[in-house]
Amino acid sequence: MNLDDFRITAGKSFKLADFSAKSKPLSGGAKAIDQARVAEISEWLDAQQDIFYAEHSRKLLVILQGMDTSGKDGTVRGVFRSFDPLGLRVVSFKSPTPEELARDYLWRVHAQVPRKGEIVVFNRSHYEDVLITRVHGWIDDAECARRYRQIRAFEQMLAETGTTIVKCFLHISKDEQKERLEQRIGDPQKHWKFDAQDLAERKFWHEYQQAYEDAIAATATPECPWYIVPADSKTHRNVMVAEILRAVFARLKPEYPPPKPELAKLVVE
Fold it and tell me: Coiled coil: which residue ranges (predicted)?
């Protein structure tokens, strides 16, 4: 299997149930091998990022979505660890503030999109506004459909103005989430990660799976695709996201700006 098998560009035939969260299609067969692979790819990506930053003409937005404990933070630490912080920014969206609620739901998101030469990682994103809001009935089906249309238009506008968008759904199973939550409860050093609200949201597991399936199907396009990342294995999750980014940079082929001939005549005294 290759990355194209997990790349969703249209929703007509997409079913989340067709993807197993437990699978490890890109694994080398051992945790140590996969960890070494992530480290190797991360170093290559770091070099590409330097060129991308110097090129200063294009923008890259990576969107990480997934259920609680799916590994969004772990993906940031594992895949982007070698990146130069000068050209990388990670944005985590929390519950909207009163000021944000007084505006349209995309207002706060648009303010955080990447500048030229910058890579921005959204740890959760504008998709929360068609996920938790729908699961809890805060918006109806008609409003949800309007938001799908608005999100498609928003992302298309970003793509047409130089932003490459990569959307990753970190796909974990209900059993794996249970184990990770139990680990957080059982280890005092992980208590800081635990939020009792995670248990409340877990009761809506099936509703969230349906909401994710609908959102992915409604917003996957050739310009702004979704990738389904089997994430029960943390190491495989990182391998796959790293490989996705390697493919993106291989396609973008960033180049340093052309040299300035006039500098050859300068003398530093």
Answer: none
